[in-house]
Amino acid sequence: EVQLVESGGGLVQPGGSLRLSCAASGFTFSNYWMHWVRQAPGKGLVWVSRINSDGSNTDYADSVKGRFTISRDNAKKTLYLQMNSLRAEDTAVYYCARDNLVMTALDYWGQGTLVTVSS
Amino acid sequence: DIQMTQSPSSLSASVGDRVTITCRASQTISRYLNWYQQKPGKAPKLLIYAASSLQSGVPSRFSGSGSGTDFTLTISSLQPEDFATYYCQQTYSTLFTFGPGTTVDIK
Questions:
Q1: How many A×B Cβ pairs under 8 Å?
Q2: B104 and B85 in contact (C-beta within 8 Å)?
Q3: Contact A4, A77 (CB under 8 A)
Q4: How far apart are CA B93 and CA B33, in angstroms?
Q5: What is the distance between the alpha carbons of residues A104 and B32, in angstroms, rounded to a whole number?
Q6: Do B89 and A47 touch (CB under 8 A)?
Q7: Model confidence over A82-116: pLDDT tens digits?
Q8: Residue pLDDT, tens place only, A44-72
């Protein structure tokens, strides 16, 4: 069974940093591109970042470019999102999701981890 | 950037109704369009990918159509478990924009 479990969320002050993790199981993690998607409270889904299967290629939404870094450790089957210079508008539930490699559809999602940026 | 719009933003329907949700892209995206269902407090679930391909395990009452800039998600006979918010997403260009969502609730 495919499982994605996020962790690392919490309360952080504006300007602070946080690293999210997403532990994968039930599939060959190293074969799949992975994504982060976020959802502010009561709002819609926003794509954040993507990483290819070996970690050599990444993409970011303009709103996080230069502040967030996506990475992965295929040996540990874990996806990461390093978030720096956090702002109030980064407050959201962050989901990791697997790319099904067919037109970049996100076929499995984690349960999400809440990041709150507030003083 | 490609902008996505959905209509309606919300609708009320009864069990057994046929429901259609429309998604429009600001420029052509071929068939790079996915549909997701999200229930309150839960992660999104992939329903349809590549505009019309049904994700494994998704009931056949869900269907998708369209290409270019205009797409539709149809639920042929609404079931109690289908009351949720539906999002389209374009994956034609990186940034992978989601639509604003359509909430389907009980009439």
A1: 64
A2: yes
A3: no
A4: 11
A5: 8
A6: yes
A7: 999 999 999 999 999 999 988 889 999 999 999 99
A8: 999 999 999 999 999 999 999 999 999 99
